[in-house]
Amino acid sequence: MIRVQREDFDTGAELARLSADNLGVGGVAAFVGLVRDMAGDETLTAMELEHYPGMTEKALADIEAEAKRRWPLEASLIIHRHGTLEPGDRIVLVATASAHRQAAFEACQFLVDWLKTKAPFWKREETAGGHRWVDARSADDTQAARWESGKAAG
Amino acid sequence: MKIVYFAWLREKTGCAEEEVSPPESVTDVRGLVEWLCSRGDGYAEAFADLGPVRVAVNLEYVKLDQAVGPDDEVAFFPPVTGG
């Protein structure tokens, strides 16, 4: 399931819902992304998250479908926020449920790695000195590329 | 043709979304970018270096040689930084 929203989410409630009514789930893996309080050497006062409505949902659905193709998942969930966030705020929740832990762990990391490099979101950091758009990190591309060819982590 | 811009491409062009009617000589994304650059300094600055510019046509990532037509939605944006 995909959700793109301004509002915060309740991590515990979301994870409980993911495995509710499905006794075939043996494990749930989750990643929660948070806003840090530093932007380089400066103190971050706020973060603005812009996205491309329409393409965002499509890109996330494509990524989720790919994860389901590669791993035997009972359920998966991606919640990504947009709008103005503050240090400590939750940005994203990625969760996967499977019969066994390995599929849940791997699929969760795959979803995070691919959404970071494919889903059309952009972060703008606000500090006392002004604002700047966050640059994409080549390390994120490297991380995502690990999943390009193979089925599982190499 | 609908064009949308995001992040610093939106700021440099001064435009989030616009309807345009490029000349018939514009057949692909590269040609569209060249035509857009002729429309003002903000566009020329935004597209001065195409290295960090990503393009989507009808919500799918494409390369600069992708064909475009009047019914397409074309998006220009920097490398994504979500998550």
How are helices and strands ordered from N to C of chain B?
Answer: EHEHHEEE
Cα shape of chain B: globular
Known CATH architecture of chain B:
Roll
Q: Tell me about the biggest sheet of chain B? A: 5 strands, mixed
**Helix-strand makeup class of chain B:** alpha+beta
**Largest sheet descriptor of chain A:** 5 strands, antiparallel
Rounded to the nearest angstrom, the radius of gyration of chain A is 16 Å
N-to-C CA distance of chain A: 27 Å
Portion of residues within helices of chain B: 25-40%
Give me the CATH fold name of chain B.
Ubiquitin-like (UB roll)
**How many DSSP E strands of chain A?**
9
Number of helical segments with 4 or more residues of chain A: 4
Instruction: Flag low-confidence runs of chain A.
Output: none
What's the CATH topology label of chain A?
Aldehyde Oxidoreductase, domain 3
In total, how many domains does the architecture of chain A comprise? 1
Instruction: Kindly report the name of the CATH homologous superfamily of chain B.
Output: Beta-grasp domain
**Percent of residues in helices of chain A:** 25-40%
Describe this structure in words.
The complex is a heterodimer of chains A (154) and B (83). With 154 residues, chain A is an alpha+beta fold. Chain A has one domain (2-145): Aldehyde Oxidoreductase, domain 3 (Alpha-Beta Complex), CATH 3.90.1170. Chain A is built from 4 helices and 9 strands. In chain A, strands 3, 4, 6, 8 and 9 form a 5-stranded antiparallel beta sheet that branches. In chain A, helix 2 (55-70) runs antiparallel to helix 3 (101-118) and helix 3 packs across helix 4. In chain A, 33% of the residues are buried. By secondary structure, chain B is an alpha+beta fold. Chain B has a single domain (2-77), classed as Beta-grasp domain (Ubiquitin-like (UB roll), Roll). Helices cover 27% and strands 23% of the residues of chain B. Chain B has a 5-stranded mixed beta sheet. In chain B, a hairpin with a 2-residue loop joins strand 3 (54-57) and strand 4. The chains are: A alpha+beta (154), B alpha+beta (83). Chains A and B meet through strand 4, helix 2, helix 3 and strand 8 of A and loops of B.
